[in-house]
What we know:
Elements: H1 2-7, H2 11-41, H3 45-71, H4 82-92, H5 96-124, H6 127-160
Helix pairs in contact: 2-3, 2-4, 2-5, 3-6, 5-6
Amino acid sequence: MAVVASFGLAPALADNARDFLNDAIKGDNSEIMLGRMGKRRAATPAARSFSQTLVADHTRARAEAVGLAAHLHMRPPRHADKAAMDERDRLRRLDGWSFDREFARYMVEDHQKDIASFQKQADAGRGPTSALARRQLPTLHKHLDLAMRLNDRFARYAQRQP
């Protein structure tokens, strides 16, 4: 009941806010996991730099989200989401430009989904989770822009190959 009081919402809406926060933390865990993989395995300096940015920014975002979870008496998830685990398995089978191209492609797709989810939460006006979503949206947009530039670069390179 403390969560309902904190949010001033009906229980169903409070659960949605908690679900959003749970998913946001899983998303951060996922980006950190894949970013670390990219730092180790990416072939190009641009992909390694992007990977480093992902790890740094999502580590900060995760810390903020975990702090809010603690305030709401929630246990934060420690694992990545299933889609990221599947992508990790795909990336393990790739190397060189193939790795970088798939990594960038996935990050575009993933950040588009994240932005849609965070925007919906920001617009919902659900107290602290909406505020968190609003604060983190600019970073997600930055990541999408970086991923799209990488994706375009790798696609142009792939077209030039015989």
